[in-house]
Amino acid sequence: MGCDFRARCLAHVAVLLHTPCRPVGETTVGHVIAFEDQTTQEKTPCLVVDAEAFAANVKAMAQVLPGLRLRPHVKAFKCTELARKLAANGHTAFTCATLSEVAGMIHAGLGADLLLANETLNVEQMRDVVALPGRVTIAVDSPETIAAAAAAGVTEVLIDVNVGLPRCGCPPGQAGVLADVARAAGLTVRGVMGYEGHLMMVQDRVEKTEKVSDSMALLAQAAADVGTDFISAGGTGTFDTNTVATEIQAGSYALMDTHYATLESPFVQAIWLEATIISVNTESGYVVADSGLKSMGMDHGNPAWAHGKVWFCSDEHVTMAPADMSHWSVGDRVRLEPAHIDPTIAKHERMWFIENGAATEWPVDLRHW
Ligand SMILES: Cc1ncc(COP(=O)(O)O)c(C=O)c1O
């Protein structure tokens, strides 16, 4: 064993000394990648998006919700290059969670119809955003948020209704009154929205359909009270069970994560966190890669690895037990499936879009608030 290790060391040093540049498929220490299907040569940790898997998700969604039946939520991917591909596919209206996302979409020429599906009291930032050349609708759920929107020069609002998730949204019975308050403040009430986030992960389809239907009955009544037939709701977990909303606000479906992958759905994993193995412990049967919890959202747990078990993540490390230790060496690259893409992507400045073997940089340009 000692001898093997010494020979391996000498071989690597020889490779390093005699390799002037790095050919495709080799890592910086000269080990030829044979096991992980596809990897890049970008600095790790980095996000990589597979063009084919992404296209399959876009197609699967458009078959159920074509064009404006879907209002993709940009908070999931925070990237105007990705949004541009959705717009080219007919989804030209978008949902945003922050005013920065709204501004970034307008600056990217994607501001035809943006919904801020979130409450804000930031009059100054709202004023800046509505001065840009785009159509912006803001969610409101109280006299205070209505007053802020009016003070900022917003022209169109949606009444946000609580449909069961204890988050924003007025009680369903108050939607009509709030719409009157908004109109009295000079605002146009475009419709209602309600996010049934508490039902996204219901696994049983029959149960989910019933619960979504009950939740959306509240929103439909609120819409009637407001006097509108514009109903915005839904997400990746309810995209095909919510039949009441006139548009669905799904975003995660485009790239997916292991959390949503537990649901039965047509969507496939299209994004990975690529990392480099920086240490191998053959005796104890684990490898360590250079991607820890500072490079991924951990609220839904550890990432998954197709070639073994993820033991744990620390700040800059992930420790994993490969199914077959003999496949892995220091310098190999691995691809991890994030458990929750929204916070994972928000930690990165870019993603690499991999199409026909070439990597194109997609800035994560809608980050921050
Ligand atoms: C207001 C709102 N709409 C829709 C969604 C659905 O997004 P996704 O498709 O990523 O689940 C979310 C997710 O949190 C949300 O907050």
Topology:
Layout: H1 2-18, E1 46-50, H2 51-64, H3 80-88, E2 93-96, H4 99-107, E3 113-116, H5 123-130, E4 136-140, H6 143-151, E5 156-160, H7 175-184, E6 188-194, H8 205-226, E7 231-233, E8 247-248, H9 258-261, E9 271-281, E10 286-289, E11 304-305, E12 308-314, E13 317-322, E14 333-337, H10 341-346, E15 350-355, E16 358-363
Parallel strand pairs: 1-15, 2-3, 3-4, 4-5, 5-6, 6-7, 7-8
Antiparallel strand pairs: 1-9, 9-10, 9-14, 10-13, 11-14, 12-13, 15-16
Helix pairs in contact: 4-5, 7-8
The structure holds pyridoxal-5'-phosphate.
Which stretches are poorly predicted, pLDDT < 50 over at least 5 residues? Answer: 13-34
> Any idea what the CATH architecture of the largest domain is?
Alpha-Beta Barrel
Question: Which hetero compounds are present in the coordinates?
Answer: pyridoxal-5'-phosphate
Treating each run of at least 4 consecutive H or I residues as one helix, how many helices?
10
Distance separating the two termini? 54 Å
What is the overall shape? elongated
What is the helix fraction of residues, given as a range?
Answer: 25-40%
Counted beta strands:
16
What is the level 1 CATH name of the largest domain? Alpha Beta
The biggest beta sheet is recorded as: 9 strands, mixed
Structural class: alpha/beta
**What is the domain total for the residues?**
2
**CATH 4th-level superfamily of the largest domain:** Alanine racemase
CATH fold category name of the largest domain: TIM Barrel
As a whole number of angstroms, the C-alpha radius of gyration is 24 Å
Share of β-strand residues: 15-25%
Query: What's the rounded overall pLDDT mean?
Result: 92
Series of H and E elements: HEHHEHEHEHEHEHEEHEEEEEEHEE
